[in-house]
Specification:
The complex is a heterodimer. Chain A is built from 12 helices and 11 strands. In chain A, the strands form 4 sheets. In chain A, strands 1-3-2 form a 3-stranded antiparallel beta sheet. Chain A has a 3-stranded antiparallel beta sheet with strand order 4-6-5. By secondary structure, chain A is α+β, with helices and mostly antiparallel strands. In chain A, helix 4 (105-116) packs across helix 6. Helices cover 41% and strands 13% of the residues of chain A. By secondary structure, chain B is mostly helical. Chain B folds into 5 domains: 31-68, no CATH class; 79-205, Winged helix-like DNA-binding domain superfamily/Winged helix DNA-binding domain (Arc Repressor Mutant, subunit A, Orthogonal Bundle); 210-306, Winged helix-like DNA-binding domain superfamily/Winged helix DNA-binding domain (Arc Repressor Mutant, subunit A, Orthogonal Bundle), CATH 1.10.10; 312-382 and 391-400, Orthogonal Bundle (Arc Repressor Mutant, subunit A), CATH 1.10.10.10; 404-504, no CATH class. Chain B has 21 helices and 13 strands. Chain B has helices spanning 2-11, 35-46, 68-73, 77-87, 90-102, 107-121, 130-142, 179-187, 207-226, 229-245, 258-267, 273-277, 279-288, 309-329, 331-343, 348-355, 359-371, 400-429, 431-450, 454-461, 466-505, and strands at residues 50-54, 62-66, 105-106, 146-148, 151-152, 164-165, 202-205, 256-257, 295-298, 304-306, 346-347, 376-382, 391-397. Chain B has a 3-stranded antiparallel beta sheet with strand order 3-7-4. In chain B, strands 8-10-9 form a 3-stranded antiparallel beta sheet. The chains are: A alpha+beta, B mainly alpha.
């Protein structure tokens, strides 16, 4: 039993030259692959056919193609097409492919597409066009990925039934959820109205306070009735009307609606503290209290177009006039 | 005569739609119509409502045309009287009233009639000196509230259709009057003046000047609302200065320098102490305001200030239209309207987001505003692909001068007309009752003056039942209500008309 094991030593032949390997330089496929990876390391922006030609002119094109395809399927390289020249470039893939372990290639394709969409998410139909997969297959894959908690679906605020898919741990972008004024994809108009009235009341109180000192002159009175958006934000946050944190941009959108209501006006001034312009607001009176025409029934009549000297709607027997004259 | 006048108006092929429809400039009437028509025309010419000129085709025939602005200003006569009374006093008011009643009259005639009126009002107890009235007349002429009518041109006797003309510099100069004969006639309780020296010089009310004054009232009110009452005072003064130094027809006034304004404020007796103390601040607050009430154009003399009528009336017209949108459609529609007006061109989605109105409501209000011509649509096509359907942008915008202001103005005319029709209808329906009431009242007054005992008067007044009396009271209050409504509608019409006039000038 202790007879020494005799390892047969056979003469190792030269590796049989496969038709794909060129005998000129005697490179193996593995060596060519390594060389390609080195080249890609040297040119991080990518290598194209020309570089490969100059580097290994003797290697047959078919060999190169096969090696490159293998590298692609192993997820070690990416293939790109140059925008201007429409040439093909290959470069090393930087990202670790660890999390894609345990999924098959179709799922990998879908995952990559979803990853590229970032935090805006991508729609079902777009995935289908990009991956050219079947609808049923795609659905199966998406369900599987969701089950593995790799992706999630978020419903967009612009179209309630439309679902976008994004990576599981990403925060959806503002354009999808709508921002602070949307909760559960519904526009919270009551909250906006409440904040609207609150801001207006704050500015009114400031103006009232400023008017208490008329002796100092109208300029002082006017300048004292200004409030900057930061200050208003502070006051509103202190009132704790909303549960989440209001940013200055949010308050500025509310204040803009008040400007468009004609109740306040905005002016940009430079603040000593911060760089750049600071927006300040104050209430203004309208230059006309109300148009004279709206004080008679005809000014607000809904059937004014049908009114005339004959017909069903006449000023002589107009019900609106009857009510108004009583 | 009224039916004749009306038939003249309607017969002249005007566009239908009420007394205030804009008239065509001239209509042809044959000169050889019956006397009543001639008389009607003469009356209207006397009251500055109709003017005549030789026809282009045949110099021997006169063409008559309506001066529709003057016809419209008939509605404003009460306002004129109130303004004159507020600015000057009762004697000027009487003078103006007489002149409005007479249409065109010579200065002596007006003074004579006013003196008579004052005598009657004061029950013949006082003798009002016509020289005081003469001074009042001079004041009115100086401030351009009354203007000389054109007189016959020198070659008028040759032409069949006389031409009238007046020289620019003589428009407001009062000729020398002889007060003595007037005073004598008054003492004799004469009712007619008879021959007098200046019977060739005829005066009428200057409607344009009153328009300027009405506009100034609106502007001063705007300044007072924006800042405070003292600013309104200052603005009133500045408006007076501008009027004195600028041409009334130009869309921008001449520049006033800071020092001139300061002097005027100092010299003015009615300036409040607050104004004197903080004069620079008030001026600064006014010209920095966004409503363009004063615009600072230069630095010479401490600052040059002008008023640009087109900008300020654009702001006023926008405020009027905002108010109309607010009352008719609501505050959310107002926000959308103002947003589109300020940002010029907006897409539906942008409007929703910036105005923070829920999508369904925003769409509803947008289309309502579109239906009533407040918003217009502009479609921009994008993409030139032959295969795919062409995507187009739909933008909303506000076309202020052409669409919105004109629609609102037409609607205001219609509203004013409706109020007048309603008033006329109410009065004619109850004419019998009102006449009876009026007769009873005059009877009671005369009998009371003659000293009839009270119980007899009470017996007489019971001939009208309490229900009838309350109905009469109700009719009177309805009448007043409607008159007030017409005055307010007239305010809106003034602002919109001024805006359209000044915006077409620039």
């Amino acid at each position: 039993m202790a007879s020494p094991v005799v390892i047969k030593k056979e003469k190792v032949d030269e590796p049989r030259p496969s038709p794909s390997a060129d005998a000129g330089e005697g490179q193996t496929e593995a060596e060519i692959e390594c060389r390609m990876i080195e080249l890609m390391g040297e040119f991080p922006k990518g290598i194209n056919d020309k570089i490969l030609e100059t580097d290994m002119p003797n290697v047959d094109k078919k060999v190169k193609v096969a090696i490159l395809n293998r590298l692609l399927s192993q997820e070690k390289v990416n293939i790109f097409r140059a925008a201007v020249t429409k040439e093909l470039f290959w470069c090393l893939k930087q990202q670790p492919t660890s999390k894609l372990k345990g999924v098959d290639s179709e799922e990998k394709i879908v995952m990559r597409i979803i990853e590229e969409a970032g935090n805006k998410g991508i729609w079902n139909r777009d995935i289908r066009t990009k991956s050219s997969l079947n609808q049923t297959t795609l659905n199966k894959i998406l369900k599987a990925l969701e089950g593995k908690k790799l992706i999630k679906s978020v419903s967009s605020v612009s179209a309630a039934k439309k679902k976008v898919y994004m990576l599981f741990n990403l925060q959806p972008d503002r354009s999808v959820t709508g921002g602070s004024w949307y909760s559960d994809n519904e526009f919270e108009s009551e909250l906006v109205d409440v904040l609207n009235q609150q801001c207006y009341r704050i500015l009114q109180q400031k103006a009232e306070g400023a008017k208490q000192k008329p002796l100092e002159g109208p300029l002082i009175v006017r300048n004292a009735s200004f409030l900057s958006s930061k200050e208003i934000c502070q006051i509103i946050s202190d009132l704790k009307i909303v549960k989440f944190n209001l940013t200055v941009e949010d308050i500025e959108t509310i204040l803009d609606t008040l400007v468009y209501d004609g109740k306040i006006e905005m002016s940009s001034t430079t603040d000593g503290y911060s760089d750049g312009q600071v927006k300040t607001y104050r209430t203004v009176e309208k230059i006309l209290s109300s148009a004279g025409i709206v004080r008679i029934p005809c000014g607000v009549c809904p059937v004014i177009k049908m009114c005339g000297t004959v017909g069903a709607v006449q000023p002589k027997n107009c019900v609106y006039y009857d009510q108004w004259l009583d | 005569m009224l039916p004749i006048v009306e038939s003249l108006l309607w017969g002249n092929r005007w566009p239908s739609g009420g007394l205030l429809a804009p008239a065509r400039p001239s209509s042809i009437i044959r000169h050889s119509l019956c006397n009543r028509v001639k008389k009607a025309l003469a009356v209207m010419i006397q009251h500055n409502l109709v003017k005549f000129e030789a026809s282009e085709r045949n110099n021997n025939i006169a063409e008559y045309s309506i001066i529709h602005h003057n016809v419209y200003c008939l509605l404003r006569y009460p306002k004129y009287l109130y303004m004159i009374k507020r600015i000057y006093g009762t004697s000027e008011e009487i003078l103006l009233e007489i002149l409005l009643n007479l249409g065109q009259a010579s200065a002596s005639n007006v003074i004579f009639q006013s003196a008579n009126r004052l005598k009657e009002a004061n029950d013949d107890s006082e003798f009002s000196d016509p020289s005081a009235l003469h001074k009042s007349f001079l004041k009115l002429a100086q401030d351009n509230f009354i203007i000389r009518c054109p007189k016959l041109a020198d070659n008028a006797n040759i032409q069949k259709v006389p031409t009238l003309e007046v020289e620019e510099k003589e428009k407001f100069t009062v000729p020398h009057l002889e007060i003595g004969p007037i005073a004598k006639l008054l003492k004799e309780n004469a009712t007619q003046l008879g021959e007098h020296g200046d019977s060739e010089v005829i005066w009428r009310v200057n409607h344009e000047r009153f328009d300027v004054e009405l506009r100034n009232v609106i502007l001063v009110n705007a300044a007072a609302r924006r800042v405070d009452a003292t600013a309104g005072e200052l603005y009133h003064l500045i408006l007076k200065l501008w009027r004195e130094c600028s041409n009334p027809d130009s869309p921008t006034t001449n520049a006033l320098s800071f020092n001139v304004i300061k002097d005027a404020v100092r010299k003015n007796e009615g300036s409040s102490p607050v104004l004197l103390e903080h004069f620079e601040q008030y001026l600064r607050v006014l010209y920095e305001d966004t409503s363009s009430l004063i615009i600072r154009v230069g630095d010479a003399g401490g600052g040059q200030f002008v008023l640009n009528y087109s900008t300020v009336f654009e702001n006023l017209a926008c405020a009027t239209l905002d108010s109309i949108v607010l009352e008719r459609f609501g505050s959310k529609a107002l926000r959308l309207f103002r947003l589109t007006r300020i940002q010029k061109f907006m897409e539906q989605d942008q409007m929703q987001n910036i105005a923070m109105i829920p999508a369904k409501e925003a769409k509803m209000f947008t289309y309502k505003l579109l239906e009533h011509n407040f918003l217009q649509i502009k479609e921009l096509k994008k993409g030139t692909s032959n295969f795919a359907p062409v995507k187009s942008f739909i933008l909303f915008h506000v076309d202020l001068p052409q669409q919105v202001a004109r629609t609102a103005l037409e609607a205001s005319y219609k509203g004013l007309f409706n109020a007048m029709v309603r008033q006329m209808h109410d009065l004619t329906d109850n004419k019998r009752l009102l006449d009876k009431h009026a007769r009873l009242e005059t009877l009671l007054e005369t009998l009371r003056g003659e000293g009839l005992p009270e119980d007899e008067l009470a017996y007489l007044s019971d001939s009208m039942t309490a229900a009838e009396k309350s109905l009469v009271a109700r009719i009177h209050s309805m009448n007043d209500h409607l008159t007030l409504g017409q005055t307010q509608a007239d305010d809106t019409i003034l602002i919109l008309e001024s805006y359209l006039k000044f915006s077409s000038m620039t």
